[in-house]
Amino acid sequence: MIDLDFWRGKRVFMTGHTGFKGSWLSLWLQELGADLTGFSLGAPTNPSLFETTGVGLGMRSIIGDIRDARAVSDAMALSAPEIVIHMAAQPLVRYSYDHPVETYSTNVMGLVNLFEAVRQTPSIRALVNVTTDKCYENREWHWGYREQEAMGGHDPYSSSKGCAELVTSAYRRSYFSEGGRGQWPVALGSARAGNVIGGGDWALDRLIPDIMRSIAGNRTVFIRNPHAIRPWQHVLEPLSGYLLLAERLYTDGAPFADGWNFGPSDEDAKPVQWVVEHLAAAWGKDASWQLDTVQGPHEATFLKLDCSKARAALDWAPAWRLGEALDRIVEWYRAYVQGEDMRATTISQINHYQQALREI
Question: For residues 287 and 280, is the Cβ–Cβ distance under 8 A?
Fold first, then answer.
């Protein structure tokens, strides 16, 4: 259970705050009373959740590139944070095939730049590095991957995140742990989640945004892999895990400085077709889908996580089943189409989610 009082007044430095996940987490931290500084490139899409909900109004927003080591260091020094949450990334698999250098420089060397800035900032006690479920070497198993499984990745994006996990482990042992070469210990954990869904995602080549654009525009939905199974979860589910992990890293330190999986219940690992049909029915119009026959690059057909460690040690568990998560997405996009106050809509969903957490 998230400690609602813990975050009040805490100085938090977050990278990637203009992105989809970063915007949701920024609004949540603002509601919790954190003193929040964000460092990121500008909003990645137009429209964007960041602009639509006025995320920047309730925080210190610094526009910069994680690949610029000096800019990262200067921004962190300015905010003197107690907690760092690193979410800046090039997050798209298919984009990474066409832009491998950008993907590796952002997801690997950008992380190194962040860690080097942390090493120069004595105020920091806890650091959460957000990676992905795709960091694992995917063997198409029918059981969940555990935190000690081998890192890997078929495509540039996935392998860049596997690399990021190896960098995290090396910095943890070399610089951030007791007895390391760093000047002070920093509790460093990594958080692995994937296929997050929610309102306000307009990224290209991502299933839910593609579906909602088509349904709202009365167009046929084209899907590439209708039988591919994904561990779907609302974006607030892993974000609650990141907050819990950051709290425990701050209060308890080394025992929680490790990798952590945050994924849905096994029952919510559903095929793409199931998700499309549920969204279409919830929207309430005669939406239809067709198979996209254009040959694309390799995509994994099955990947899910074993989250028993987070359930046992962090007392973390998903609060919304997949059906409710999809209904909340439809609710969000319908409000957007109708011109409603999207900051209020998004915060309302956060509050409803927090209530669901209390009822677990």
Answer: yes
Structure tokens at 133: 């479920």
Helix axes 69-79, 110-119, angle to 10 degrees: 40
Per-residue model confidence as pLDDT tens digits over 258-269? 999 999 988 888
Type of residue at 326 = L
Measured CA distances, 121 to 66, 69, 128, 171, 297 (Å): 17, 14, 15, 15, 42
CA dist 111 and 117 (Å) reads 10
**Using CA atoms, how far apart are residues 35 and 111, in angstroms rounded to an integer?**
23
* Whether 286 contacts 294, CB under 8 Å: no
Is the CB of residue 134 less than 8 Å from the CB of residue 151?
Answer: no
- 20-32 vs 236-252: helix axis angle to the nearest 10? 60
Residues of the chain with pLDDT under 70: 180, 182, 285-289, 291-302
Task: Give the residue from 304, 100, 85, 84 showing the smallest Cα distance to 194.
Answer: 304
CA distance 129 to 126: 10
Q: Based on the number of CB atoms within 10 Å of its own CB, is 360 exposed (0-12), middle (13-18) or buried (19 or more)?
A: exposed
